[in-house]
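To fix ideas, we quote verbatim a fold written out as tokens:
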Amino acid sequence: MSSLPSHNKDPSRIRKQLSDSCPASSTATTKSLRHERLSRLGSSGSSDVSNDTSTNHAESYFLRRENRLSARKKAEEEIANNDYKKMYEKALATNQRLKSRLETSKQELTMIQDQLERAQKGGQNECGANVLEAEKKIKAELKTENQRLKDENGALIRVITKLSK
């Protein structure tokens, strides 16, 4: 018989093999093993039956308790895993949203920089054009005023000439 339990053996035999390999076995396990041995041999004593019943009740109690504890642990792990999964999905969605906003902001920044460059270049041309137009207007005004002053000067010279005669 191998020391490793196989899958097709019943749980009581597995427990027996494990307790045989462990030198410090509890009294409940010893009673359980004694019960199994007696039941296999077919003996039926009244004191053994009462021990059997209490041992079976204790075993079933501990088995049910283990099952409840393991089920609770599994449920808690699933809840924790679901919470982590939900938190991961939420963080992932937030990350995607922020990435798209960043991309949009980068595009807007590029467009605004292009517009600024064009405005600065165009502004220099417009400023130069505006200055040239202003200078042309001033020059035209000065020419007309100069012409008026020449005409006035000529008229004054004629008046003075007439008076001096």
